[in-house]
Hints:
The chain is built from twelve helices and 18 strands. It has helices at residues 38-46, 104-107, 149-152, 155-167, 183-195, 207-215, 228-235, 250-258, 281-284, 300-308, 314-317, 327-337, and strands at 2-8, 11-16, 26-35, 66-67, 71-79, 91-94, 97-98, 118-119, 132-136, 140-142, 175-179, 199-203, 219-221, 240-245, 260-268, 289-292, 318-323, 343-347. One zinc ion binds next to loops.
Amino acid sequence: MKALRWHNTKDVRLDNIEEPHAKKGEVKLKVEWCGICGSDLHEYTAGPIFIPAEEPHPLSGDKAPIVMGHEFSGKVIEIGEGVTKVKAGDRVVVEPIYSCGECDACKQGKYNLCNKMGFYGLAGGGGGFSEYTSVPEHMLHKLPETVSYEQGALVEPSAVALHAVKQSKLQVGDKAAVFGTGPIGLLVIEALKAAGAAEIYAVELSKQRRQKAGELGAIAIDPNNGDVVEQIQNLSNGGVDVSYEVTGIPPVLTQAINSTTFNGETMIVSIFEKEAPIHPQNIVLKERTVTGIIGYRDVFPAVISLMAQGYFPADKLVTKRITLDNVIEDGFEGLLKERNQIKILVQAK
Ligand SMILES: [Zn+2]
Ligand SMILES: [Zn+2]
């Protein structure tokens, strides 16, 4: 079968590999749709980051070449020994987190903070950029008939957004600002709507992405139109309750902090490649808080229910649909070159 594998930096290949089978405790899926994630692109252009290139990952036991793809939906076609949660024909999505179950974080149920945490589709195990893949049973969540496979491919990135809003101090009726409206930033806007934010400001340089944020109901702010902090402070009458940093660009962190009101909170959602200097007075003099999240935990069922209500809409967020045969040229290269793309989905056939 065909599978996209990471071999090295700038070296991903559509390989022909052996079809997997459902071993004990595993479920074999026919992959339906798989989204290309920002971290897939990072692995492609600057990896390895999460991919085990030299040593096998402690939980998956795999090392490069690694099958990629961690945002996917599929249909159950075979179950391994002992599997009880799903049966052949079930429609599912994968929560792609490996955790050890033994460290202190795991014991507290905070499996995304596990010492050995790895992503299925980055750390090994298989992945969604392939025709078939075999997945540990505990990673599966069933999709109701009302949620399409295409929508299902957005559950994973939406879970990041929902976890970010859930972990922040935002309350119904509060004001929020989102810095950066790429795929995750736009999904944070959706999560904020679901949480009952009264005003959502979206700061974004790209015109297309700003428009998209407006379409979803946010008040779009162009950083080229003067001081962003001043604009948000004025429009919100004194600052937002929570700001979300989703750009990973160092100077934006200070803007995000200074856009909040006294006792405001800044939630860092992005992965920073460099240090981001901040002046502590910006926190101290207003008794503000700065915090962050990684991945998600225990939110997949909520995301799926919210999708059934129309949140995180695929028809507004998916800008291109391609097949596995073209995943490198039209998918990875496409995302790097075409600035108007939001989410590209790959059909496994
Ligand atoms: Zn991802
Ligand atoms: Zn652990």
